[in-house]
Design goal:
The complex is a heterodimer of chains A (about 280) and B (about 200). Chain A is of the alpha+beta class and about 280 residues long. Chain A has 8 helices and 10 strands. Chain B has 6 helices and 7 strands; from the N terminus they run ααααβαββαββββ. Chain B has a 6-stranded mixed beta barrel with strand order 1-6-3-5-4-7. In chain B, helix 3 crosses helix 4. The relative contact order of chain B is 0.20. The chains are: A alpha+beta (about 280), B alpha+beta (about 200). Chains A and B meet through helix 1 and strand 2 of A and helix 5 and strand 2 of B.
Chain lengths: ~280, ~200
């Protein structure tokens, strides 16, 4: 990687998901599964083996009736940058089947390289990675909806959200053919972003001040890319995973649920190790 | 255009060349006002009455079916945004989005306030027998703080008998546990709930 070509300024694709807007309808999950040829089985109620690149969690403030509040939280792969591309999963992969792209900020998954050791599943703090315990089965007729742009996965490999990378490849090719130097914001959007009926997901280049996601998040490059938006937080931010999915909520208990805090610590406060 | 190509009476009923001409001709003077001021307000409406009251509005609320002493809980159905609630089947992806606190294997869940569940001795995920005056079902218990103590709820749209293993036999059809109760003023079904009893299975 010493001779990486740097013709364009590096892109850093990421998301801002507004939890005040999300209704928990699950459309993002369905859109993702349909777009990415994610298989399904008759019983999907064992969530440990149910493959959902995007998964909507239901959070609760744990207060008793009638003070109970809930919040839905869609969880794609967080595309951790870590420090210098050392994502938890990338660091442990013995096959270089997953890699951090410094060009796009996407954590890739190369199915043909993966041999199924599942170290990455253990390393991922977000349960964003899934193992194919079975070969996918498409009941007769359903194979017709499969996307030709996404390779289906076989038994024994790991898969996860790719930020719909095939869409980026198509958009990049199209831009090149049109003589454009960059991929426009609207030309590359993930399936979940486009499907969300509430418009809760905003996707784009976090490095590009003209992109909506940058304006919402206002990442602070001097502070580990922490958001300057007071409503924003990242999941387990204090682990230093430096994720590219930013969540927004006006509710303090939701922001607090995003990380493990000691009783005396304030929400959003840095951990002791980060302060030193 | 479609009407014109169909000819005959249909074409005659749509003499306008496009929708704009249609609006212009049918709205009359309102069209001119709309074009000039951008908005048209109807101010000459005579109200039918100053107040409105439905027949038998003051009658007492319709009670849910069942004897409170034999069935201490109130079972209500809820519509989940992740499930088609009617007779329509749900495609595999839709079922996949449903949490494991709503369906687990083929078992359907009933949402119970932890207080209520503890009083009966039902832990999270425990199997229970749900009995109503209309029927009985095997369910699992899901503790949820957000539901009122004494009330239990089940998702509508489960327990299909039709089609394949992706849909059939998952959960319980709550409609089989609930009967209709008529509202005396409108004649419509009023109480969607029913008295119920939960017991350890």
């Amino acid at each position: 990687m010493k001779h990486e070509q740097k013709q364009n300024p590096p892109l850093k694709y990421g998301m801002a998901i507004d939890l005040d807007i999300c209704t928990g309808c699950g459309t993002c999950m369905v859109a993702c599964m349909a777009e990415n040829n994610v298989p399904f089985r008759e019983d999907e109620s064992n969530k440990l083996v149910s493959i959902t690149w995007m998964r909507v969690y239901k959070l609760s403030n744990d207060k008793s009736f009638p003070d109970t509040e809930i919040c839905y939280l869609p969880r794609p792969c967080q595309h951790c940058e870590g420090h210098g591309g050392h994502s938890p999963c990338v660091s442990v992969c013995p096959a270089t089947a997953t890699d951090y792209s410094s060009e796009t900020g996407v954590v890739s998954q190369i199915y043909t390289r993966c041999f199924g050791c599942r170290y990455c599943l253990a390393a991922c703090p977000y349960h964003a990675r899934y193992f194919n315990w079975w070969d996918p089965v498409w009941p007769e007729g359903t194979e017709k909806y499969l996307s030709p742009n996404v390779s289906p996965r076989m038994r024994g490999v790991v898969e996860k959200c790719s930020f719909c990378y095939h869409r980026y490849q198509l958009a990049r090719n199209k831009a090149y053919l049109n003589g454009e130097r960059t991929v426009a914001e609207a030309a590359y959007q993930t399936a979940c972003t486009q499907a969300c009926p509430a418009g809760a997901i905003v996707f784009g280049d976090l490095n590009n001040p003209r992109h909506r996601v940058h304006r919402i998040v206002q990442p602070d490059s001097n502070n580990g890319n922490k958001s300057k938006n007071p409503r924003a937080f990242r999941l387990l931010e204090r682990l230093g995973t430096n994720t590219k999915i930013y969540y927004l909520s006006s509710r303090e208990w939701v922001r607090r649920a995003g990380d493990n805090y000691l009783a005396h610590e304030k929400t959003g406060q840095l951990s002791i190790t980060q302060q030193h | 255009m479609t009407a014109k190509s169909m000819g005959g009476a249909v074409a005659a009923a749509f003499p306008w060349t496009n929708y704009e001409t249609c609006l212009e001709n049918t709205l009359g003077e309102k069209w001119d006002t709309l074009m000039q001021e951008g908005v048209w307000v109807e101010d000459a409406i005579a109200p039918v009455a100053q107040t409105a009251q439905a027949v038998e509005m003051d009658t007492a609320a319709v009670p849910a079916e069942g004897d409170e002493s034999a069935f201490p809980l109130l079972l209500i159905p809820y519509d989940s945004i992740l499930l088609a609630s009617g007779t329509i089947g749900k495609p595999p992806f839709m079922i996949k989005t449903v949490a494991d606190t709503v369906i687990k294997g083929d078992d359907g869940f009933v949402e119970v306030n932890p207080q209520t569940a503890q009083a009966i001795g039902l832990r999270e995920g425990a199997l229970a027998t749900l009995t109503t005056p209309r029927g009985q079902a095997r369910v699992r218990v899901h503790h949820f703080e957000g539901i009122k103590p004494g009330v239990i709820a089940m998702a509508r749209g489960l327990g299909h008998t039709a089609f394949d293993g992706y849909l059939a036999g998952k959960g319980v059809n709550i409609n089989e546990l609930i009967g209709p109760v008529e509202d005396p003023s409108s004649g419509h079904d009023a109480a969607w709930g029913i008295r119920a009893k939960l017991a350890k299975a």
